Amino acid sequence: MKIHIINPNSTASMTDKIAAAARGIASPGTQIIATNPSGTPASIEGFADEAVSVPPLLDEIRNGTEAGADAFVVACFDDPGLNACREVTDRPVIGICEAAMMTASILAARFSVVTTLPRAIPIIEDLADHYGMGRRCRRVRSAEIPVLALEDEGDAAAQKVRAEVLKSVAEDGAEAVILGCAGMADLAAALTEEAGVPVIDGVIAATKMAEALAGLGLKTSKAGAYAFPRQK
Ligand code: 5HY
Q1: Would you report the helix, strand and coil content of the chain in percent, each value rounded to 5?
Q2: Which protein residues touch ligand 1 with a CB less than 6 Å away?
Q3: CA nearest to 65, candidates 29, 35, 110, 41
Q4: pLDDT tens figures, 5-36
Q5: Would you place residue 157 in the very low, low, confident or very high pLDDT band (cuts 50, 70, 90)?
Q6: Which of 16, 36, 49, 76 has most ligand 1 atoms within 8 Å of CB, for mutation?
Q7: I need a labelling partner for 146 at 20 to 30 A (CA). Which of 7, 59, 184, 215 fits?
Q8: Which domains does the chain have, with CATH numbers?
Q9: DSSP label at 228?
Q10: Phi-psi region at 214: left, alpha or beta (left = phi > 0; alpha = psi -120 to 50)
Q11: What pLDDT digit, counting tens, does each position of 75-92 carry?
């Protein structure tokens, strides 16, 4: 099967990191294709970046459908344009925020999220409410790092993420912690070990969900909200 993972920002090194994380857990026989549009923001930090990333993201979904993808992952923790993506293809489309929150809610009664900049906190809090996870989400924390700091040499950014993950457990009563940025995909295993609770990366969770849905042969329903856009 072919899982197409799309990084909506235009930073290729982040796309490569996302692809490596997905390929590390993909089943034998699953081909991971990872792409990013050109011309979108280098990182998505807030509403305006999110808005301009959606039209090129939809083109990636259309092209991927033509190329035979069995399912898609939108690899940005804002889940930008997720419902719109579901309109333009009949393949399953999974957002990494939704996948991470669903996974955390199966493994734990309460979870916290650690994201990058403070401006992402209300966006993720609203997504938790949107996905019916408001009560389960104890807190959304910021490591106070720009998204692209995760691409820098060294581990300064990772150490800031680590500190907030440990605080989530110690202070929030979090029984699981979600990494709230696709660029954190490479940190989950080590942090799970150290924190003593599941530390969930949305790229990995979404990739396995995509495999499951594609494996079941299930497609996005075109019976209503996700019907193809009408020709005008
Ligand atoms: C992401 N931004 O996953 C989000 C997360 C964030 O470019 N990829 C981005 O921190 O806003």
Answers
A1: 50, 15, 35
A2: 9, 43-45, 76-78, 115-116, 120, 147, 181-182
A3: 35
A4: 999 999 999 999 999 999 999 999 999 999 99
A5: very high
A6: 76
A7: 59
A8: 2-95+205-215 (3.40.50.12500), 97-202 (3.40.50.12500)
A9: P
A10: alpha
A11: 999 999 999 999 999 999
Other CB atoms within 10 Å distance of the CB of residue 16:
14
What pLDDT score does 85 carry?
Answer: 98
Contacts of 68 (CB under 8 A, 6+ apart): 2
**Rounded Cα distance, 126 and 23, in Å:** 30
What φ, ψ does residue 139 adopt, rounded to 5°? Answer: -165, 150
Please give the number of the atom of ligand 1 that sits closest to the Cα of 45: 11
Instruction: List, for residues 194-219, the tens digit of each pLDDT value.
Output: 999 999 999 999 999 999 999 999 99
**Helix or strand holding residue 205 (H, E):** helix 202-216
Task: Determine contact, residues 5/207, Cβ cutoff 8 Å.
Answer: yes
8-state DSSP, 30: P
